[in-house]
Amino acid sequence: MLPGKSQEIILIVTLVVFFFNISWVMSPVKVKESHKKGKKNLQVFILAGQSNMAGNGGVHRQIENGVVTNLSWDGFVPQECKPNPKILRFNAAGKWEKAHEPLNYGIDCLLACGLGPGMAFANEILKKDLEFGVIGLVPCAKGGTPLHKWRRGFSPYDSLIRRAKFAVKDGGNIRALFWYHGESDGKAKNTSSLYKRNLENFIHDLRSDLHAPTLLIFQVIIPYPKEPFVGPYIEEVRAAQLGINISNVIKIDAEGLELGPDGLHLTTPAQVQLGHMFAHAFLRFNNFSFLNRYVLPFNILS
């Protein structure tokens, strides 16, 4: 081989190695090799709905003349929500990374993301079942989105389907979807009166588009809000949620969980409690997996 040609090959190889190393260092995804090898056994959970699923625990609002003028998160992360090597997050860039609060960062918010139920759920699962494996959380919540936007052709729904499919393209199992939604639809009669039908359509379309006809869904029954939040038709929305009769839809009543000063969003302790409720309901369902074609006859508030 000619000397000049040999030097050219060495230069090309050096540049390839250089740019590979640079791209690795600059990448925000730092998933351990053990996680990569275990992708086929990744246990995936989708988190969807409105702002209480996105997470507003610890978010403070400055209100002037009835208008929110400033939002800030206090940054407090309780022990139940601390990072764990066995908990991954599917971030806004479509990459798996070590999960941390705020879990919904980049999906629905940038400056005022708060704490939601996802990390508390995952940590409680791993605490109760040491052999559960690696948990992958896929946040998809969008604050303030009415239910008629969670259908084919609209951004929240299409984004959920796209992210869920992409999350398991290299392996993994979608185990369940956690759904917390309904407050904005409780503001008007027309949205509340259509809520049950729209929710049933959402569930059927979701399972069809994910090719998962028996996908396990944990549906939060929204709590009654307090002042200053105004939701005159919350009772109708709650009735619609309680009236859903579809297999593998588990209802979890959030009534009684602590609400923040705005009368709408769960506090940090309440989000931790909700995460534990999700975990206990999921484990309880698994313990009775032979009944997985039916709706378990219980709601959770413990």
Automatic annotation (TrEMBL):
Transmembrane segments: 9-27
InterPro entries per the UniProt record, alphabetical: Carb_Esterase_6, SASA, SGNH_hydro_sf
GO annotation, biological process: carboxylic acid metabolic process
Pfam families in the cross-refs: SASA
Domain Sialate O-acetylesterase: 42-283
Highest taxon of source: Eukaryota
Residues annotated as signal peptide: none
Keyword line: Hydrolase, Membrane, Transmembrane, Transmembrane helix
Molecular function, one GO term: carboxylic ester hydrolase activity
Protein name, per record: Carbohydrate esterase At4g34215 isoform X1
Organism: Nicotiana tabacum
Lineage: Eukaryota, Viridiplantae, Streptophyta, Embryophyta, Tracheophyta
UniProt gene name: LOC107768588
